[in-house]
Design brief:
The chain has about 300 residues and is α/β, with parallel strands linked by helices. The chain contains 10 helices and 12 strands. It starts with 14 loop residues before the first helix and ends with a helix.
Length: about 300
């Protein structure tokens, strides 16, 4: 008490402890987190105990044989990610204050809205001397551009094995997608209307092959070169489309195949292609931020 007033003790969360906390959540196991971070399981347990003491509330609860987050834990996780992102951005800005050069990035429309503002904003604030060029295009175009060295990095969909200059980031579910307020149902004798990107399109081929294999008649109701146009057409009720959950507008929803009489769709691979085997530091840094953001987006989808 000071001058008759109660002084609240300020808590300074340990960023190292917060990193352990978020790593365990991301990996689904604190034993895996201990291995990833090069610590013993007892050291990780001590860190988590310290975190609960600092939080002043339980952050874990029993869930079967494992642990789940309490409401306080969920709140703490969100803030922990933000604190760590700011810490890492600060460290990058300080260390890379003289980082210069050019980075040419290729993305598909799915990731444009989800990643451009966040990833490029953070990168350009930290490295103002680096010139960034972005190309938003289809997978075939991006693969050709990165192979020819016209762009340095490209994030794209593919169904086969990645090339030597690429790494598989993850496999994501392909979904039937339709209007948020409509109930899709295959009707006997009525061709299913589809809203698809112009050919050539890998997802277009996957959808048509799945329907043909299930003996379901279909027709082109709408085609376009623009993903935004597909979203709008499907939301208007012109037909179903096929995409991953990434970037899905609120006006659309994922349709359960079995309930709608539709065939299940295979997952699709997401790969990161590089033009050079030994890229410069600016390219390496943007790649690091890009992969972090993609993995975070995938985690949010899996948790939804």
């Amino acid at each position: 008490m000071k001058n008759g007033m109660v002084v609240m003790r300020q808590i300074s969360f340990d960023l190292d402890v917060l990193r352990t906390f978020t790593t365990g959540i991301d990996l689904g196991s604190y034993a895996k987190a201990a291995d990833r971070l090069g610590r013993s399981t007892s050291a990780v347990s001590a860190q988590l105990k310290k975190l609960e003491e600092q939080a002043g509330a339980p952050i874990f609860r029993k869930a079967g044989r494992g642990l789940a987050l309490t409401a306080a834990g969920e709140i703490l996780l969100g803030y922990a990610r933000r604190l760590l992102d700011l810490n890492d951005e600060t460290a990058s800005a300080v260390r890379g204050v003289e980082l210069e050069g050019e980075v040419r990035l290729g993305l598909q429309e799915d990731f444009g809205e989800a990643l451009l503002a966040d990833v490029l904003g953070r990168f350009m604030r930290a490295h103002p001397k680096v010139r960034v060029e972005v190309c938003v295009a289809r997978s075939t175009d991006l693969r050709e551009r990165v192979t020819l060295g016209r762009i340095d990095l490209a994030l794209l969909w593919e169904s086969g094995t990645p090339a030597l200059n690429a790494q598989r980031v993850d496999d994501l579910p392909l979904c039937w997608i339709g209007p948020a307020q409509d109930v899709a149902q295959v009707q006997a004798g009525v061709p299913l209307p589809l809203v698809l990107l112009d050919a050539p399109c890998m997802l277009r081929d996957i959808a048509s092959n799945a329907l043909d294999g299930a003996g379901i008649a279909w027709r082109h109701a709408f085609t376009s070169a623009s993903l935004a146009a597909l979203w709008a057409a499907s939301a208007a009720g012109l037909g179903l489309t096929v995409r991953t959950p990434i970037g899905l507008p609120a006006s659309l929803r994922i349709i359960e195949p079995q309930a709608a009489g539709l065939p299940a769709l295979p997952p699709i691979g997401l790969s990161l292609y590089r033009a050079h085997t030994m890229p410069g530091p600016a390219v390496n840094r943007l790649e690091e931020l890009l992969l972090q953001a993609v993995h975070e987006t995938i985690r949010r989808i899996a948790a939804a």
